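note to self: the first set is below, dont mix up w the second
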Amino acid sequence: MELTLFDRRITIDFREFLQRFGLLLVFFLLCAVLAVLSDRFLTISNLVNVLR
């Protein structure tokens, strides 16, 4: 995929994108799945415990 930004072409390689942000994507996917499956995952008390 190519994006044009101020007459400069930037190529985005899917493999490079996954190498850079793959772990972060997996983390957000895991949080989303846990939030859907558990009724206590996104509670205030759990978020306070995580931030501690």
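second set (the one i keep forgetting abt)
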Amino acid sequence: MLPDVSAFGMNSMEFCKYILSEAKVACAPGVAYHIEGLVRISLGSERIEEAIDRVARAISKLPLKKLATA
């Protein structure tokens, strides 16, 4: 899974560090795959539901960057 996290106003490395610190869930920054703005999340764990819940709680604390409208 490669979600776009650019709306949170941080680069992929900053986002991954935040999720690791806040939710205790590891993800890989897109910059490592030459796709800045995305993060790689592996869904291959027996505790995936718990991890998703923790990530969702952490993300809910982040402000969204105002997106330009056309």
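remember for set 2: The chain has one domain: 6-60.
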